[in-house]
């Protein structure tokens, strides 16, 4: 080990925060008690809201300062201040999309309580800068000082950044058009089976002889796909205790440290326990002594692309026959190591910013700059609407489901499926978010921007969003599936995820009359695949032509469609499926469209789980050639041979020793783990996992990049309304962002094994679990 790595390790140890004793903190009005439990979770007790959120900011910054700083720079297009011109393309993309400008708009809408919360939290985080024994080790490696801005707008941009990752679908519009042009409208509908039957003339005439959609698609910003979640709740008629149980596991991109920071906040006005975002005050997902809640992403359509017509000088856009001047935002991007900022002029029509770059990839997105040659403007709900921080306080203060509904009325973007349970025995569901009312069209395709006929006319009224309370079934569940029936009068979207996780959850909920924490824990780790059960019989119709094929098919014939990490059949199924996709799609749509539709854009949802069963069951010349079923079987055999060759190369000759988990791993790695000498120091763990993107135990991967899971359950909670101290939870890595801390990665193997740690809530339970107490006193 090199001396400089040893020096970094010593620097990391020097930066560990104090967890016992007393610290005088400026801005506090009264003392605050911070009791950390054995998992490093702080239980913060204060006398008032301002002190509580100031202390939260201080404590979170003491554990996650670099993560907060990085998120702020990312959200505001300031990464080049940390990584120099290496991240200049990303900054230009962010400034073009305008997360920083949106942050200012969102902050301007904050109510008085939200302003107080943000001011206190920010003051606490900045107070840590004055108290810390040493900066986090990342700053020593990078030769930088921490930087935390003082304005609400910069911090609100982080909420915009999070909303962006849970909102994006506009590039799908371009993908649909290109496939329709290449393969015909009916084929496009086959490849997007959940899409409403939209007549092709919807888009007719709007292209005006311009670039093909493939050219545009090559340069379209890619949003991370596969981000979803599960939540479900049962009432007391379905539990041994007679009180509700609530479970939630939000699925997000793998990160190190964890996306979430676990915390328990308590003062006379507000008490909640659960997980928070490191850059924001309050508890986002969690419970009180009285009730609990959990989220899944609605995946509603809140983005539209408008193809604009500009004048010759590119200064005005056509709107209903009149030329309107473009707004021009003069962005100055500071680049580390240079004396002059980089100037960027962002043009914006009445719909939104004109885009010129795209992101490619999920785990490590790359920016391809200046490649969009057409004039597309993006309208997005999140450009000026987000979440009021005060909503978190009001959610916890709610004394009934009706009050809870009112508390989330202004949860504008990203829209969430919220489930609720209370100790009075009530359970409920509320869809939140703003969903545009379109004058024309359904948001599935780009539309002309030079006419007002495709404009938005307000939002679907909150009172008319889907909701439910105390259903006769005794349970509620969502998993990013369509949340309404065919008779629902409003458009929420067309890009809901397939219903398989929701179906599997309901299967398990109804399989047993009485549920417990143990049955819910098994459900959260469930890897049985409904789509595999539907596809497998079609694959097994193939007659083998070699001993290797015969052996593989024999393993699949005995398989129970459970994608456990130790399953050889699961490995064969997944790798064979990938090669079937290549053999089927690639000759029809070409490498670039294949990469966008299947390999890198997470549209495996559409093909693998919805399209493939249909085309296997009804093999047509369009997909397999004129020989129908015989041609299909030939394609499947060739794909199976390719899969077996890949598996042998990767896992060895002994087919009985093949395991899905050997391919399907989760790597929890800090960004600095990319530096070879620092990989060990900054890697929190590499663990095997089961499932895929449509099992309850989420494990989405990008087939074009390998089988490593890129989206996983970021937090699992099971809240017991009969005894909140009996509740359990776990996030992915650990509470600390410091690799020298015992809580840097102490949750990884707990999470991987499907185990939990207790969530002590009452004062007695917290004191029984205490590992150290820190007092923050006024200064």
Main features:
779 residues, alpha+beta, 11-stranded mixed β-sheet, 7-stranded antiparallel β-sheet, 25 helices, 36% helix, globular
The biggest sheet amounts to:
11 strands, mixed
Strand content: 15-25%
Mean pLDDT: 91
In DSSP terms, counting alpha (H) and pi (I) runs of 4 or more, how many helices? Answer: 25
What is the overall shape? globular
| N-end to C-end Cα span | 44 Å
What does this structure look like?
The model is unreliable at 196-226 (pLDDT under 50). Helix 5 crosses helix 8 (152-165). The protein is α+β, with helices and mostly antiparallel strands and 779 residues long. 36% of the residues lie in helices and 20% in strands. It has 25 helices and 31 strands. The protein is globular, with a radius of gyration of 26 Å. The strands form eight sheets. An eleven-stranded mixed β-sheet has the order 1-31-2-3-6-7-8-9-18-19-23. Strands 4, 5, 24, 27, 28, 29 and 30 form a seven-stranded antiparallel β-sheet that branches.
Brief overview:
Helices cover 36% and strands 20% of the residues. The protein is of the alpha+beta class and 779 residues long. The strands form eight sheets. The protein has an eleven-stranded mixed beta sheet. Strands 4, 5, 24, 27, 28, 29 and 30 form a seven-stranded antiparallel beta sheet that branches.
